[in-house]
């Protein structure tokens, strides 16, 4: 059963770095954040059952993602989906994309199947989450799932770290001006300059 739902926007910047730079980047982000905690999330990606047909006819299927934070005492599944990012001509500095989000009570994977989606892939993300005003900053390494047990396989020490700086919750432009959200992520880009290259991503 689905709970609250919102249709609005997310603004984001992305980056990646080598493990040797972890300490310096962790320190700088921590210094400019209000709070921090560890994260270990499971993410399952679904695509429409007719995704192949959609691609053959020239349209990109909208993927559905299920996410659950494994370290929370009573973790709940969140379902979210992104539409195509706005053109670089409209917002050249950051990724701005319409998104929909809802919390699912019960088995989100069965719920996604009932909506006509099939599982495409699964990963785990282990790292840290920071809060900074209206933003959430996730810094993590990806872990693959064991095909037999579905449990996470620890990432290799040399696995790249990924960073996502984004608005913590989807927002409507009548409540939060787009410029306010873009300026917030660009401020983090400036704070990390010389240490971490944060940029827009169009996928």
TrEMBL record:
One of its GO terms (cellular component) is mediator complex. This is Mediator of RNA polymerase II transcription subunit 18. The keyword Lipid metabolism does not apply. The lineage of its organism: Eukaryota, Fungi, Dikarya, Basidiomycota, Agaricomycotina. Its main location: nucleus. InterPro entries: Mediator_Med18. The keyword Zinc-finger does not apply. GO terms for biological process: regulation of transcription by RNA polymerase II; termination of RNA polymerase II transcription. Component of the Mediator complex, a coactivator involved in the regulated transcription of nearly all RNA polymerase II-dependent genes. Mediator functions as a bridge to convey information from gene-specific regulatory proteins to the basal RNA polymerase II transcription machinery. Mediator is recruited to promoters by direct interactions with regulatory proteins and serves as a scaffold for the assembly of a functional preinitiation complex with RNA polymerase II and the general transcription factors. The gene is MED18. PANTHER family: MEDIATOR OF RNA POLYMERASE II TRANSCRIPTION SUBUNIT 18, MEDIATOR OF RNA POLYMERASE II TRANSCRIPTION, SUBUNIT 18. One of its GO terms (molecular function) is transcription coregulator activity. Keywords: Activator, Nucleus, Transcription, Transcription regulation. It is found in: Nucleus. It comes from Phanerochaete sordida. It comes from the Eukaryota. Component of the Mediator complex. Belongs to the Mediator complex subunit 18 family.
